[in-house]
Amino acid sequence: xxxxxSPEKLQKVLVGHGIPNYQxxxxxxxxxxxxxxxxxxxxxxxxxxxxxxxxxxxxxxLTWEEIMNPIYQLSERIKWTWGVISHLNGVSNTKELRxxxxxxxxxxxxxxxxxxxxxxxYNALTKLNNKNNKFLDKVQRRILESELLSMKHRGVGLEGxxxxxxxxxxxxxxxxxxxxSNNLLDATQQWSLVLTKKSDVDGLPKRILEALAKEAKxxxxxxxxxxxxxxxxxxxxxxxxxxSYIPFITHAxxxxxxxxxYKAYVQRASQGKKNNNPLIEEILxxxxxxxxxxxxxxxxxxxxxxKMAKNVDAVEKLLDELRxxxxxxxxxxxxxxxxxxxxxSDTNISEIAxxxxxxxxxxxxxxxxxxxxxxxxxxxxxxxxxxxxFNLCNRLFDISIVPDNSNVPKxxxxxxFYKVLDLEGKDLAAFYLDPYSRPASKRGGxxxxxxxxxxxxxxxxxxxxxxxxICNQTPPVGSSPSLMSFEEVExxxxxxxxxxxxxxxxxxxxxAAGINNVEWDAVELPSQFMENWCLDRQTLxxxxxxxxxxxxxxxxxxRKLRQSRNFNSGLSTLRQIHFALTDLRxxxxxxxxxxxxxxxxxxxxxxxTTVIPPIKEDQFLxxxxxxxxxxxxxxxxxxxxxxxxxxxxxxxxxxxxxNNEEEIKLKGTLFKETILSLGGSMSPSDIFRKFRGRPxxxxxxIRHSGLKxxx
Length: 711
What we know:
The chain has 711 residues and is α+β, with helices and mostly antiparallel strands. Among the domains are: 6-157, Glutathione S-transferase Yfyf (Class Pi), Chain A, domain 2; 192-268, no CATH class; 380-512, 3-Layer(aba) Sandwich (Collagenase (Catalytic Domain)), CATH 3.40.390.10. It is built from 27 helices and nine strands. A five-stranded mixed beta sheet has the order 3-4-5-9-6, sandwiched between helices. Mean pLDDT is 93; it is low at 1-10.
């Protein structure tokens, strides 16, 4: 940063609106500006409260504009400011950013506590929501009821010592969540294994060998002859990020090495200074304490009070219905794997171990379907996959998506920026795409988040939504683009489904636009719906083109992909059920008084939700960021709950015939005008009925999964 730029720019970095200027948002600017902004936010909140006191004294009737607009404008400025900082902490993590983030986080939490616990605001909202207020529409009522429940959950009804205890727990939980995420990022990054023998990498595709050789070269590893690493001679440095771990555990022939790598992966963040186990116990204990302070029996009961599934029994019932359908299939699939491994292995395998499942699944898949997923990668270069995704959106929703080549600020050179236009070329929305894995600075997984939400600026101008779409897929290697696995293609479609709900909303109340105010267990509907299109003939064959020859994916390979769709679906379904039940019961029945560790409870649950029990080294909970460092606490079941909705929604297109373009267009328009457009303005159940004409059913999901309904 030049001296000339510094004084002016530093005063205008955290502006609270518009596209963030990432070029200048640094740990230094955050450290300088955020404390000043927090003081301003507190002052503005005081002004709002004073104004509301006067209104409550003199007005029998309050209006939406005089109550909700000031709250929204302040909330958006806070959300924008901390949202940008949190986003950078996830995608451009550095020691300097961590430091300023952890130092400022308590003050941000205190501000949010004060906002959420303001009795003046609560009283104003309550009075505005008066049943005799005939000037409120149904959407406004829903927003108010949701906000009042949210304030209850944030402790507005607590007093004195109880509220102080609650607030201290909130601050501590925020700190623990950040520490959990940092520990996992560090543990994933810090482990590596240098391989020097050809036999160590036997079975790995050339693409992976090239990536591992590059890791070795970047780390300064040299072979015996002191030559620079190559994919043919090594050495090869293996790490635990997904683009390295998954190919190795799937293709490496050396069983002893797969065991080492698997055990390292499942033990991440469970030892030494980076041990997340103490954090897990403290998180669960504090959540339970908070729930009881608010009048709930458990965190699960609190969590479900604002979801589609209204109680624990409803979730348990759904998960058990799916478990009973998946368990027999999973047992049969494991038997098939064991039999094939025993017949095909050079070594004596008495029983399948966890580090064998991915390897022998791939071997059996290749034999059964003559399908090699790794060999399909050249047909899925990222640019072609994006073309296919964008063409599908045009086909279904009458939108066009084009790259924006203007100088939009970005946080990394990998990042691209796109505009979403209607058929007349009018701007509807935009999104950032950050596609590649960067283990040193970017947390794992994939997610969509809000950069800007649909709403109105302080100047009364409309704000178009902008989304962050973050993946961790295979980066380009050498001269080749990012060559995606089919699973990475599905992940991209999944996150884009979230993005579509954020970007195509037509609700003019920002508190219910897009994903805002959507019940958590319905928010995965659009994302999982989009995954279904990856195996639609027109979509898949339209985007699957060889990166060098531009030849389309052979018809035979498409047929194999379709045939293998449900390969080991019992095992994969059971895996998700295990995660969901573990999360639910940890947040419903676990406590220090139970006399068992969280991991022990998880192992009890595993007896009915796994066909291979977790090994003693398995410390999965220490990397379960969804529930300990994300928003899925007592909500991981949402993936299966929403998958029921998404499978049933896609079935509507299947019933119309996927080759009938006129019907597909009509159904796509209806999906856009209901699921994508209405966001949080109505209950998900009512919106689903608007689209489907009836309540959802589990039949489509069980059919799509190739399972049989129990009983």
